[in-house]
Amino acid sequence: MPSGIGTILLAEDEPAVRAVTSRTLRNQGYRVIEACNGREALDAARAMSGQEIDLLVTDVVMPVLGGRELAQEFEVLHPGAKILYVSGYADCGAGLPSDEYSQGQDAAFMRKPFSPVDLARKVSELLTGHRYGVGA
Fold this sequence. Notes:
Blueprint: E1 7-11, H1 15-27, E2 31-35, H2 38-47, E3 55-59, H3 67-77, E4 82-87, E5 107-111, H4 116-128
Parallel strand pairs: 1-2, 1-3, 3-4, 4-5
């Protein structure tokens, strides 16, 4: 399984999913800042202005502030950071195909549920540009 360094802001409203995701990322060597909704994540991003956040991992559908809106505001605060959208909804809860979330080279999408190995690989791919897996 790939490992890495960097700071990840994790916005996930489901406590069990947030715990497993955070533990997986920490076990890979990442510093993880946890938030239980988009507003809390945005507050954390603002508090860290001037400090680098390498990746935002955000659920698409959350109370208070959704992942799409969070990402738009986050990008202003931390330009150049990558974004990984995650969702268990087929249409991402916003009426948009999942492809739209991963069109940019700085963003990707993962459907829940995902394995810790798949998460570690996707995060590493985003942060390093190196693909892992069959034929990679």
